[in-house]
Specification:
Length: 472
């Protein structure tokens, strides 16, 4: 393999959000471009693991302070064929091998151990990879350990790329846990430090060869984004580049998607979407004759979860529309969204939880998808919506700004708003409702957006160009 992607998530093995979609698709497209790519991720005790067959590739023990854990690197059998690239999973007994990806009190220990085992594995390779590509803070200590820890001197010349999918999560922990890291020259501790703590995201930015963001616009926002690392992003900007995410057009394809009720193409979009909308409306007791405005996502502050119920309340009050929310997260937001069902029976519904199938059906059956994000490093939902002929209504931020053009502009095809307030988003939904009632224009746009090319092909190549620059 030329590039090894290291990540906490990878679809279909484990997914919490868009990180999994990216790491699950990018290596496939790189391999298609004749650049050998592999993925290394943790082994979780989940559905995917239960239904997969594994081949043991490497065995070791990993030391964390006083404790040592048995670790194995397992290759998913037939992954080259089934996924398009080899997938390896790091199993660490009694530490990493849990049901969920995140959310445990010892996540710091779990991901430090993961990164150490990964590097121990690479250490014994006969042929070194051309580059190690780390994704988000769970892999952020790799560039530091690789360049600073004595154990990894033989492989320290391997270039590292660090991709920021979300700068809000940095994985910081106390210096009291410093002894979990392999030995290094303590004078270099400053490379790990931010705000008196060990900060894996900051350490990655300092120690990696290049860092990237998942959209060009998010990179321009980072020095002002109030993540706490603004100054660092600014001073290190010479080694940064923004590369826009793509989508896996095989997984997300309305003409072959097995998770939706009726497949369709640009030509059959009217009947196709209607059939999917019908199933949704039957399932959620909604009116098929009204425009369906949906939201899919993690119910967190980033996505505007705290005002989501307020947005739907105001928009439903002002417009003859239907609303549907799929998501989970903040319990108060979940509660308010559930409450709203009683106020708008037959017009609004909520599915609290995670359902890959339902998400596909919503992309296919909805008329509009809202994303009132406070910030959005890239956002994939709007790209899936476009591919399924669902018009995105998005806040002008991050990757949403790079990928959605407002209908008020020449060549525009979506609806944008500037603020994350109930009024501003509800107003954008009113514009969506107006567009829906302008039937011919609505149908035209719906067809047009299905043809927009947001596939990984271009961006997968941009990453390869970047790797090649480092290898010279
Ligand atoms: P983020 O990574 O910040 O959550 P993205 O827009 O990049 O946002 O990606 C979100 C991904 O997670 C998409 O594939 C979306 O369909 C999926 N998703 C989010 N919440 C849910 C849910 N409750 N059920 C199913 N899929 C979900
Ligand atoms: C993060 C971001 C999201 C991005 C995804 C994949 O979770 O919040 O905007 O699309 O990563 O890169």
């Amino acid at each position: 393999m030329k590039v090894i992607h290291v990540s906490a998530e990878c679809y279909p093995a484990a997914k919490v959000g868009g990180l999994a979609d990216v790491v699950g698709a990018l290596p496939k497209y790189q391999t298609n471009l004749n650049y050998e790519a592999a993925v290394v991720m943790p082994y979780y005790e989940n559905k995917f693991a239960k239904s997969s067959k594994y081949i043991t590739d490497f065995k070791t023990t990993v030391q964390l302070g006083e404790n040592s854990f048995k670790a194995t690197i397992l290759k998913v059998k037939n992954s080259e064929k089934d996924l398009g690239y080899p997938l390896y999973q790091v199993k660490i007994d009694d530490l990493l091998d849990r049901k969920e990806v995140y959310g445990y009190g010892d996540d710091t220990e779990r991901f430090i151990a993961f990164q150490k085992v990964f590097l121990d594995w690479v250490l014994q390779f006969a042929v070194k990879p051309q580059v190690i590509h780390c994704h988000d803070h769970h892999t952020g200590l790799i560039p530091f350990m690789l360049t600073q820890c004595t154990a990894y001197i033989p492989i320290r010349s391997i270039p590292t790329i660090f991709t920021i999918h979300n700068a809000q999560y940095q994985g910081e922990f106390s210096f009291e846990k410093i002894h979990y890291l392999p030995e290094y020259d303590l004078e270099q501790s400053g490379m790990l430090e931010w705000d008196y703590a060990i900060n894996p995201m900051a350490a990655a930015i300092k120690a990696c060869w290049r860092f990237t963001t998942v959209s060009p616009n998010y990179m321009t926002e980072l020095p002002y984004a109030a993540t706490g690392l603004d100054w660092l992003f600014d001073t290190e900007r010479d080694k940064s580049v923004g590369i826009l995410n793509g989508i896996d057009t095989e997984v997300w394809n309305p003409s072959s998607d097995k998770m939706i009720e009726k497949n369709y193409t640009v030509k059959t979009v009217e009947t196709g979407k209607l059939a999917n909308k019908k199933i949704l409306c039957d399932k959620f007791n909604l009116d098929i004759n009204k425009p369906l405005v949906a939201f899919i996502g993690r119910l967190v502050y980033q996505k505007g979860a705290d005002i989501m119920a307020g947005i739907f309340d105001k928009a439903l009050d002002a417009n003859d529309i239907n609303g549907l929310v799929l998501g989970s997260g903040d319990s108060h937001a979940e509660y308010l969204l559930n409450e709203l069902k009683e106020k708008y029976p037959g017009r609004y519904n909520t599915y609290i939880g995670y359902s890959e199938e339902l998400s596909h059906l919503i992309y296919a059956g909805a008329d509009f998808l809202i994303m009132p994000s406070r910030f959005e490093p890239c956002g994939l939902n709007q790209l899936y919506a476009l591919r399924y002929g669902t018009i995105p209504v998005v806040r002008t931020t991050g990757g949403l700004k790079d990928t959605v053009k407002d209908i008020g502009e020449k060549g525009g095809f979506g609806i944008r708003h500037d603020h994350v307030t109930v009024d501003n988003v509800a107003l954008a939904i009113t514009r969506a409702n107006k567009l829906y009632n302008d039937t011919e224009e609505f149908k035209r746009i719906r067809k047009e957006i299905m043809n927009i090319d947001n596939s990984w092909e271009n961006s997968a190549n941009e990453y390869i160009q970047l790797y090649n620059q480092l290898a010279q």
